[in-house]
Design goal:
CATH architecture of chain A: Alpha-Beta Barrel
Strand order of the largest sheet of chain A: 3-15-14-9-8-7-6
Number of helices of chain B: 5
Radius of gyration of chain A: 18 Å
CATH superfamily of the largest domain in chain B: Nucleotide-binding domain of ferredoxin-NADP reductase (FNR) module
Number of domains of chain A: 1
Largest sheet of chain A: 7 strands, parallel
Strand content of chain B: 25-35%
Distance between the termini of chain A: 28 Å
Oligomer: heterodimer
Structural class of chain A: alpha/beta
Shape of chain B: globular
CATH superfamily of chain A: Aldolase class I
Number of strands of chain A: 15
Chain lengths: ~300, ~260
């Protein structure tokens, strides 16, 4: 296939990404730790650290626990607050990334979400708002919006009213029927869906006879959840028409292809960045070779292909 | 000093005390990373750490640098859970390991008349590399080391061989001073004018609250990435945005005046 260039670009609505690979929120900060390691401009986009209206320290430590082929985190949305993000972090991304980024927004009330979205969606470098209604690690908010279709829909409507950018709702897997929530968000005007956030889980330290995490529970991520995420992307793709950003344990170029075959237009890489800081970069480098082996010259052609007869 | 992912060969793996093992690693190549190196593993400084892949486990494991000589990295671990148990059972001399290095901010070498090193249990290892660095600057550090029992004591002779005065405390009194390492600080070491400490959090807090002298404290916490991305090890400190620092990135070493206790 020498000289035969593979087209990795994908379209999320009006936004064209150079490739579908996006570091997932909470595993990449605002890119500062990764920019010295490789040219982050090669990334399809960046979903930056979940941002709330006010600054948050997050949960007490330990916030991290290991699991078989994965990890639990209970960071609890530590972030400097939307004003500091706009003042201190977005200029960095403008300088070192200079392409549209995904603003991951969390909140504890509809008003908090709306104000944060209003501010972030007005920033030129923000291409998409990712509405996080699925953080399992904060109490009194976050995931409660993501487990009730009516709440998810009304929040989506409220945010859509003020957002200057497309709104992708990030769904929780901690529900009986993710399709029901997905349909409610689509109906309420969501431009796309991001799925999945982490699965709620826990570990107990058998020596201390106490939960490992100070927060008791945390969100499970890593390769352990990949097949679970893939199934949910598949089901949501069957039911919804809006684009899907698929995520959950994606660790290789082959995983990216699998997610796209299930129906994802773009794919986020999360926990893998923490084990190998070059993971997202490596995946992008390997994609052309994987596609060449599959005899595919346009990656976007694979989206949802496994659903066809 | 850019972070890189190094390929290493395990050239020595030996038990040095009860449940306690020493690893010696030699760099055999660079898996990922750019920029020139001053030497193998990016020449970590005292108090910095590396992040190791333990075959069969998902998260990397952070280990402070116990020594760095002739480009070889010395790490010490104690069997505390499934990961370290697997290391003791499975790691074999000659095998390849993936190492992220160097990580974190280590100790700043301060001019002091009577520098005091204090290490508790597996918090002792970074004190060895630090002691060498201080000696190389012409300083005469002394060390207080604390363990649970006599059979857990390690590196006592190694510190003496460096020319340090060594005092040992054991919780059960089976060796040296009976009780915690703080007992030594209340005795002949109380004239220490600058402290370098590493050990369990309760030990660090007890030393801090003795208010003996200014110094630096190396913290530990369960980490996700070890390089500042996941916010898994944030620690509240004085005078910092959000009142928080990442133990893996701005730490693991904090100065007395930053610490909130």
């Amino acid at each position: 296939m020498v000289g035969n260039k593979v087209d990795l670009s994908v379209r999320l609505g009006d936004l064209t990404l150079d490739n579908p690979v996006i570091p997932a929120s909470g595993t990449f900060g605002f890119g500062r730790e990764f920019a010295p390691l490789y040219d982050i401009k090669k990334l399809g986009s960046i979903s930056f650290k979940g941002t709330t209206k006010e600054e948050r320290f997050g949960n007490p430590c330990p916030r991290i626990a290991e699991t078989a082929s994965g990890m639990l985190n209970a960071v609890g949305l530590q972030n400097p607050g939307v004003d500091a993000v706009i003042r201190d972090e977005l200029p960095f991304l403008e300088k070192y990334y200079a392409k549209p980024v995904i603003a991951n927004v969390s909140g504890f009330s509809e008003a908090g979400y709306v104000e944060t979205v209003e501010k972030l969606s007005a920033q030129p470098i923000v291409g998409i708002i990712e509405l996080n209604i699925s953080c399992p690690n904060v109490h009194g908010g976050g995931m409660s919006f993501g487990t009730d279709p009516d709440l998810a829909a009304s929040l989506t409507r409220a945010v859509k009213k003020v957002s200057q950018k497309p709104v992708y709702v990030k769904l929780s897997p901690n529900v009986t029927d993710i399709v029901e929530i997905a349909l409610a968000c689509e109906e309420a005007g969501a431009d796309g869906l991001s799925l999945i956030n982490t699965f709620m889980g826990m570990r107990i330290d058998i020596h201390r006879r106490k939960p490992v995490l100070a927060n008791r529970t945390g969100g499970l991520s890593g390769p352990a959840i990949f097949p679970l995420a893939l199934r949910m992307v598949w089901d949501v793709y069957e039911a919804c028409k809006i684009p899907i950003i698929g995520m959950g344990g994606v660790s290789s170029a082959e995983d990216v292809v699998e997610m796209m075959l299930a129906g994802a237009t773009a794919v986020q890489v999360g926990a893998a960045n923490l084990i190998n800081p070059w993971a997202s970069s490596d995946i992008i480098d390997r994609l052309p070779g994987v596609l060449a082996d599959l005899g595919v010259d346009k990656l976007e052609d694979l989206v949802g292909l496994a659903h066809h007869e | 000093m850019a972070l890189k992912n190094y390929q290493a060969k395990l050239i020595r793996h030996r038990k040095i005390a009860h449940l306690t093992y020493e690893l010696v690693l030699e760099e055999t190549g660079i898996i990922r990373g750019k920029g020139e190196d001053k030497g193998p593993f990016g020449v970590p400084s005292p108090g910095q750490f590396v992040n190791l892949v333990v075959p069969g486990f998902y998260l990397r494991r952070p280990f402070s640098v116990a020594d760095y000589a002739d480009g070889k990295l010395v790490l010490i671990y104690k069997i505390l859970g499934q990961g370290t148990r697997a290391m003791a059972d499975r790691l074999e001399e000659g095998q390849a390991l993936s190492v992220l290095s160097p990580l974190g901010n280590g100790f700043t070498l301060v001019d002091a008349k009577k520098p005091l090193l204090i290490g508790g249990g597996v918090g002792l290892p970074p004190m060895y590399y630090l002691a060498k660095a201080l000696k190389a600057k012409g300083q005469e550090p002394r060390i207080a080391m604390g363990f649970k029992t006599a059979d857990e004591v390690f590196y006592e002779e190694a510190f003496r061989d460096l020319g340090l005065e060594v005092q040992v405390a054991t919780e059960d009194g089976s060796k040296g001073t009976g009780g915690f390492v703080t007992q030594i600080l209340e005795g002949s070491y109380k004239d220490g004018d600058y402290l370098y400490c590493c050990g369990p959090m309760p030990m660090l807090e007890a030393i801090y609250k003795m208010d003996l002298a200014p110094g630096q404290y190396s913290f530990e916490e369960r980490m996700g990435c070890g390089m500042g991305a996941c916010m898994g090890c944030s620690h509240k400190v004085k005078n910092y945005p959000l009142g928080s620092k990442r133990i893996c990135k701005e730490g693991p070493v904090f100065r007395t005046e930053e610490i909130l206790w």
